[in-house]
Amino acid sequence: MLRTRMTLLAICLGLCASVGMTSSASPQHSHHGGGDSEFAAKAAVGNMAEVALGRLGVERALRADVKQFAQRMIDDHTQALDELRNLASQKSLALPGAGGKSQRSAESKLGKLSGVEFEREFMEVMIKNHNDALDLFQHEATHGDEAEMKQWAAKTVDAIKEHLRMAREIGASVGVKK
Measured between alpha carbons, how far is 172 from 177 in angstroms, rounded to an integer? Predict the structure, then answer.
């Protein structure tokens, strides 16, 4: 059980670090010299991580509700990433083309699990990621510099809240204690 919790912690820290959301770089404390560009890069990496983890969920989960949630992550985060890429292109903002080393490491660690253990850890990661994303997007919606980016972030907040609600509900059914 300790090994499982340590693996989860490593996954969460890896994903948070890959999107720049560790406590020292939280939206409330980050320097906004990069402003919308920094937000866009973090949002892009976060969406790419959710798509990649969603694929693992579809492949490795046993329960239909976990598989359906994972597929929804693929669909919704692919759409959000496409929207962000279009907006970034209009604003001449560069986005990362792939997730970072931390994301690949987290995928690798989660990819070694299967069945009930995978489902529990997957849902824990989904709850953590969506909590972090909610903070990031709410901050941008309130404090962003560019009107269209702020509007997109505000619109996306509702989807993140829905994902978080679903993740908590499914998480509780697979034994996530939160």
Answer: 7
